[in-house]
Amino acid sequence: MLTRELVEQNQRLAHLNTMVYAKLDRLEQNITHQSSETPITPTADLHTRPQLCAAAEPARKRYKTKKSLRNVWYEWFAEKQWAAPLPRQRLHDLRACVGFMRLFLPDGYDLISGDLLQIASDSETNVLSFLQESGEPASVVGSVVASMKRLNRGGALNDKIRSYQVLMQSGRIADKSPLASRFEVFMN
Fold this sequence. Notes:
The chain is mostly helical. The protein has 2 domains: about 1-55; about 70-180, no CATH class. It has 6 helices and 2 strands. The protein has helices at about 1-30, 70-75, 90-100, 115-135, 140-155, 160-170, and strands at about 110, 175. Helix 2 packs antiparallel against helix 4. The longest helix has 30 residues, at about 1-30. The radius of gyration is 29 Å and the shape is elongated. The protein starts with a helix and ends in a 14-residue tail after the last strand.
C-alpha cells in the first residue's frame, strides 16, 4: 500500500514538473520575443532544467550606482565601520579621486572642525569646472580619475600641486586622515 501511494505521488510530481517546465518555456519565449502562435510542448526531462537563452542571461554585475564626487568625498572621510571591503581597483579609484579633489580647494580646508559636505561641494564644483575648461567630459568618479591622470601626465595640474604643497606647509590644511589613506599626486 505504501509503495502504491509513493508511485502515485511520483506521478503527480512528474505531472506538476512538466507543467512548470511548460510555463518556463512560455516565459522564455515571451522574453525572447518569439512568436506566441507556435505550440509549446514540454521537452524537459524530469531531472534536467532547461537552459535559458542567451538574451535572458543576466548582464554582468556593475557597481551599484554612479557616484558624484561629493558623495565620494563624504564617504571617504565619514567613518563607516560597517561597510564591506571594496575591490582593490575601486578603492584605488576612490582614493585617487579624493586625492585630486584636494588639489582644487584653493583656500585650504579643515576636515577636523569644518563642514565636510560644504568642502566636498566646493571641491566638486572646482574639479568639474576645471575639467570642463580643459575639454574633458567627465562627471563621475571613474571618468574624473582617468581624465585627471591624463591631465597630470601632461603637466596641467602642476600649478595646483604647487599651491596644495604651499597650503600644507603653511598649515591651512587640517586633515586627520592617516597618511596611508592619502593619494599623493606628483608633478610631471
